[in-house]
Predict the 3D structure of the following.
Amino acid sequence: MSNLVLSLQEEEQLNEILSNENSDHYVFIFKHSTRCIVSSKAFKALIPDWEKEGKIPLYILDLLSYRSLSNEVSRQLKVVHESPQLLLINKGKCLNSVSHWRVNAETAFEMLGEVQS
């Protein structure tokens, strides 16, 4: 994985992501189920494009290995859990999210462009 594609495995990482309340630091969290075919297809489409064109960090959260962390993401960001799910985070809040077949790099880049313009 590139330096912009990271694994989200610990609550401390989540707290650090959400503590950037006073900056224009954007990140995405991709909630990924390794047993779901839709999620696997999203992962295979998203990661290569992100490694080529991504401009901000993309944290991958394996839902099966880190279920309690996934629940904490949903709780702290006040979003309903879906899988796969892509969350755009800034200043400790979820600005936008997409799920299922809409999870891809093109949609992510559009979401980011909308909030940065």
Notes: Helices lie at 11-18, 37-53, 67-77, 105-116. The chain has one domain: 5-116. The beta strands are 5-7, 26-32, 58-62, 85-90, 93-99. The first strand starts at residue 5 and ends at 7.
